[in-house]
Amino acid sequence: MQDYQHQGSAAQPLIRIAIGAVCISFAPVLVKAVGGGIPGPTGIGMYRCLIGAALLFLAALHRRDRLLLPGRVMALLALAGFIFFLDLFVWHRSIILAGAGMATILGNTQVFATAVLSLLLFKEKLTGRFILAAVSAMAGVILLVGIGSDVTFDGQYLKGIVFGLLTGIVYASFLITIRQVGRIRDNGTNLTRIAWISLFSGMFLGIAALVERDLGPPPDLKTWSLLFLLALVAQSAGWLLIARSLPKVPGAVGGLLLLLQPVLATVWGAFLFREHLEPVQMIGAAVTLVAIYVGSLKR
Q: Which of 11, 53, 210, 220 has the smallest C-beta neighbourhood within 10 Å, fewest atoms?
């Protein structure tokens, strides 16, 4: 009986990560469903983060978690919030211009950007296997974006590709900042940390949306509902499940489970928006995903 209980408790983090990956896989779909009108891609990010922050703070209050954290931690959370603002700024544009699946796969190339930044900042060495994975991923991305296929490279599509690749770089910076926050003992919980990051990100996105003049109230109940789902499912539930459970599983297993996000985002995009990948692009997607997984293994 105890063995069954132990196996069940060991499987719980895996299940939570898988559910979290499914949750965040809906983010690009919901962003594209809202579209590029009013609110625009930056405004969508603002509503996503501010509604998500409100939900997270309410949950923290219900649990009686400590909300105010030490100044050093708050400064790092503000930095993480600014970087996450940059992440959503470029990623939402990539989703609208290049498609939900394409943008998500390109964003997940953060694995390689994270490794390079870790080398520069923390002197973490890179193995030959990782370098081979990085080269393979570059080849996969070349095929994925449509080189060698019948894809039409118009201006909007090319902008979407560039924004997707920038997402990987910014997202890597965000993850490194989060790792530094996690090393500080401050009696804070993942719930309160993600709540503060969401709030800071929402504030920066709001300022950017005002500058762009694309910020306005959602035009109808459908848009409000999509934004609320984006905040609840992706920003709150998905990230909480992943942040809580990822440290409890081997890196290889966690990396494999998180690949559910780009795979499912591609499926949702094809099913809901008829996003079509040419055969060459499908091969490129497969090569890129395998390379991302190999690159996510412990260096």
A: 220
For residue 39, whether the previous peptide bond is cis, meaning omega lies within 30 degrees of 0, is yes
| Sign of torsion over alpha carbons 172, 175, 181, 184 | negative
Looking at the domain assignment, is residue 237 inside a domain?
yes
pTM exceeds 0.85:
yes
Rg of the chain in Å (alpha carbons): 19
C-alpha 60/C-alpha 55 separation (Å) is 9
Q: Please name the amino acid found at residue 197.
A: I
What is the average pLDDT across 56-61?
A: 95
pLDDT band at 289; cut points 50, 70, 90: very high
Q: Which residues fall within 8 angstroms of residue 113, CB to CB, at 6 or more apart?
A: 168, 169, 171, 172, 173
**What's the structural domain count of the chain?**
1
- Residues 230 and 54 sit within 8 Å (Cβ to Cβ): no
Is 214:31 a contact under the CB 8 Å cutoff?
Answer: no
CA distance 178 to 77: 8
Domain with 104, as residue range(s), is 40-124+152-255
Q: Is residue 3 part of a domain?
A: no
What DSSP character marks residue 214?
A: -
Residue 178 is assigned to a structural domain of this protein = yes
4 against 55, higher pLDDT = 55
For 53, half-sphere exposure in the C-beta direction (CA atoms, 13 angstrom radius) is 17
